[in-house]
Amino acid sequence: MSRPVRPSRFWETLAVVIVKPLSWLLVKKDWRHGERIPRTGGMIIATNHLSWADPVLLAHFLYNNGRWPVILAKAGLFKVPGLGAAVRGLLAIPVQRGSSDAAKSLSYSAERLRDGAVVLFYPEGTVTRDPGLWPMAGKTGAARLALESGAQVIPVAHWGAQELLPYGEKRPKLFPRKTFRVSVGPPVDLSKYTGRPAHADVLREATADIMAAITVQLAELRGEKAPETPFDPAGR
C-alpha cells in the first residue's frame, strides 16, 4: 500500500492554519460525493478551472477528505521570494509552459504518483475560455500521465470560485457570501486504451473521456445541460 504523501509538519500546519479558516469564512460549502476519493494510493484528480481561487478551495476539499493535494504551479512562482519557499515546501510541481522543459512536470508528477500522491491536474491548462464557463477541450498531459503510470483518474467538478474571484480580477467579491460547490465522479474508465501505444489520436480520445466525465459532474452541480461539443480555443 502506498504511503500518503504530505509535506513537512511545519508547512502542512502553516497551510492548514491559513487556508481552512479563510475558506470557511469566504464561502459556504456544497460538497458532494467526497467518499469517491480513495483514501490511499496515487491518483490524478482531474478538474475544471474557473478562477485563481479554485486551487486553494479545492485543496481544502481534498484535505478534508483525507488527501493532501500536489498542485502543478507556474515555474515563476518558485522564484518569488518567500512564496517560492512555500510552494516548494507544500510539494507543488513546477510547470515550464511553452518551453522544452514542459514535459518535466509530467515526469515529476509520475514520481509523486509512484509515491502515493494525489496530483491535482487541470487538463484545460488554463482557466476556461468557454463563454458559458463549461470545460473546454483539454490538453493531453493528464491522459498521457494516466496511461503511462496506470494511475486512476478521478473527475472532480466545481462551481462558485469564479463568483468569489472572477478570472483576471485581483479583488475578491466577498458579499454576498458565495457557495463553493464540488462534485466527485467515479473513476474515468480508460481500460479500452490499455496496451495501445500513446499516439496522438489515443491521447486525444482519452482526454475527451476525462473532460466528458468532469462535464457530467459540472452539469449536475449547475442543474443545466452542457454543450454537445466542448469549446476549443484552438478552433479545431
UniProtKB/TrEMBL annotation:
<dbReference type="InterPro" id="IPR002123">
    <property type="entry name" value="Plipid/glycerol_acylTrfase"/>
</dbReference>
<keyword id="KW-0808">Transferase</keyword>
<keyword id="KW-0012">Acyltransferase</keyword>
<feature type="domain" description="Phospholipid/glycerol acyltransferase">
    <location>
        <begin position="43"/>
        <end position="161"/>
    </location>
</feature>
<protein>
    <submittedName>
        <fullName>1-acyl-sn-glycerol-3-phosphate acyltransferase</fullName>
    </submittedName>
</protein>
<dbReference type="GO" id="GO:0006654">
    <property type="term" value="P:phosphatidic acid biosynthetic process"/>
</dbReference>
<dbReference type="GO" id="GO:0003841">
    <property type="term" value="F:1-acylglycerol-3-phosphate O-acyltransferase activity"/>
</dbReference>
<dbReference type="Pfam" id="PF01553">
    <property type="entry name" value="Acyltransferase"/>
</dbReference>
<dbReference type="GO" id="GO:0005886">
    <property type="term" value="C:plasma membrane"/>
</dbReference>
